[in-house]
Design goal:
Helix content: 25-40%
Largest sheet: 6 strands, mixed
Bound molecules: fe (ii) ion
Number of strands: 18
Order of helices and strands: EEEHEHEEEEEEEEHEHHHHEHEHEHEHEH
Strand order of the largest sheet: 1-2-3-4-5-6
Radius of gyration: 26 Å
Mean pLDDT: 96
Number of helices: 12
Length: 346
């Protein structure tokens, strides 16, 4: 078996390949690492056949849907998953064939209702059901400490104790563990009595994961994250460096338009000399009057350089083929000590 572990902060993804057939499966991919997974698969001579999420993640952005579109392969999750874009829904006891590899599905509700573990040869991919020295939390949507107790003590902890454990989270990095080691050393697994275990899980007071609302929105609906939306816009437009824009503003180059897409009060407080005001919110409604010549070169700018990227992408979609965005924003311009003009005139 070809095995790759890819960390995104503490989140772990796994690329497993069949060395005989070169078919592969990607477990718990994260949206920001898509190029890395594809690069690793290419380097290892693998073709990804399935994209599996072990459960609905509340703490990272799943890359399964985006990869499924790119690769034309199915998204696989437990049948309890609320995500409408899942192509293959699994039950406990199902098996996925990836070349000669056999992935055995074990439904392990508790961290979430749709959690599952996957056993492949001598390895157990535990999702957030069992972590190194911990278990998944049970206080997020569909979590249930009673169910987790059953999934652990009546489920995966009864498997061959020599199985290597591969969780969806590991904040230490480089740890190797087995069921036997977790049974012996994992503090949460020392509470073998149901009531004591459930009490312990209920009394953990953990802070909410960052981005939980966005992660659940995106992972449960298949909708884009804000970062994804911005990345797609950024991929469709060129940028102009601060110093390049400054030189062109100073040379009074009449051949391009600096377009400030912030709101009027921000513009009047201080804008790049020669910049015209056209707030992002009014862009589509006013372009025909404000920018009658679609062949002009336009550099959009905003405070941080994100909304201007969306504005430049919109302008390109509308046929302004020379629209670009300032790399950085008026904030970076200001911090560089470049001149600003206040008032309502460009
Ligand atoms: Fe999780």
């Amino acid at each position: 078996m070809i095995y790759e572990q890819i960390a995104t902060g503490g989140c772990q993804s796994y690329l497993l390949g069949c060395s005989e057939t070169c078919a592969a499966v990607l477990i718990d991919p994260e949206a920001s690492q898509i190029d890395r997974y594809l690069g690793l698969a290419a380097r290892d001579g693998l073709r990804i056949r399935y994209l599996i999420d072990t459960h609905t993640h509340a703490d990272h952005f799943s890359g399964t849907r985006q990869l499924a579109r790119q690769l034309g392969v199915p998204v696989v999750m437990h049948r309890e998953s609320p995500a409408p874009f899942v192509d293959m829904r699994l039950d406990d006891g199902d098996m996925i064939l990836v070349g000669r590899l056999r992935l055995q599905v074990i439904h392990t509700p508790g961290h979430t209702r749709d959690s599952m573990c996957l056993q492949v040869e001598d390895r157990l991919f535990t999702g957030d059901t069992l972590l190194f020295g911990a278990t998944g939390r049970t206080d997020l949507p569909t979590g249930d400490p009673e169910a987790l107790y059953d999934s652990l003590f009546g489920g995966i902890l009864r498997l061959d104790t020599a199985l290597k454990v591969h969780p969806a989270h590991d904040y230490k990095g480089g740890v190797e563990s087995t069921i036997a080691r977790e049974l012996g050393e994992n503090p949460r697994l020392q509470k073998r009595d149901r009531a004591a275990f459930v009490d312990m899980m209920r009394s953990l007071s953990l802070s909410m994961p960052t981005h939980i609302t966005e992660a659940l929105r995106s992972n449960m609906s298949g909708g884009k994250t804000v970062a994804q939306l911005l990345a797609e816009a950024a991929a469709a437009v060129p940028f102009m460096a601060l110093a390049e824009l400054k030189a062109r503003v100073e040379s009074a180059d009449e051949n391009f338009i600096v377009l400030d897409v912030r709101e009027r009060d921000a513009y009047e407080n201080g804008h790049i000399p020669r910049a015209r005001l056209l707030p992002r919110g009014q862009l589509e409604l006013r372009v025909n009057d404000d920018l009658p010549d679609p062949t002009r070169r336009i550099v959009a700018c905003c405070e941080f350089g994100r909304i201007s990227t969306l504005a430049a992408a919109t302008l390109r979609e509308l046929g302004y083929q020379r629209a670009a965005a300032l790399d950085g924003g008026v904030k970076a311009w200001r911090e560089a000590g470049y001149p600003l003009k206040s008032g309502s005139e460009p």
